[in-house]
Predict the structure of SDR family oxidoreductase.
Amino acid sequence: MTSGIEGKVVAITGASSGIGEATALLLAERGAKVVLAARRSDRIEALAARIAGASGEAVAVVTDVKRRADLSRLVATARERYGKLDVLVSNAGISPISALDDLRVEDWEAMIDVNIKGVLYGIAEALPVFREQGSGHFVHTLSTAGLKIVPTMSVYAGTKNAVRAISEGLRQEAGETLRVTTVSPGFIRTELAGSITDPDARSGIQAGMDKIAISPDAIARAIAFAIEQPAGVDVGEIVVRPTAQS
């Protein structure tokens, strides 16, 4: 029996490492054609070669989600190469967390640009394509930081909850043929801590990751579960966290 993933064309932002990379590998293994998007061309080109070496199909598109034109090129590449786009996984994100008193305004703006506007640009480019096709699936990576608000994460949590609200509105507007899924990871072994500019906040997050973080494969499996459902089944929200996380 074929899976509900085989033959689907899936574009993934933030595909150069962590959750995005794990998702690309798993979906390609299950027969999807993956379009890899990230700023680091060497990483996504190497990943595309790895997938091709395992008899999968992948293409790399250098993408900065802060630029709408890059998202336009990503969607266009999927259609030109494979004739369609079935799923857009908006996974790119940064987390330069800090106390509000530190007034790291540039970090706040960066999170808004990547975590919110990057998702909106993806919607702007993929939604007309999905409408034209009569089918399509948005998958947005959120965070458990938006479910349990803690000090230093106010703005980061705010960006994730903004996308949560946008996703719910999109789901309600989507109608009967489009699907919208949000996935909220807890502590996952990724490079996200590297985007934290405050050294104390970075060390705290890294310590938590070192202690209890789980593999990004866990999130990849959750995303695959949502994608493989029959067309009439919309998996709205998935939360995946370590059992040790409070």
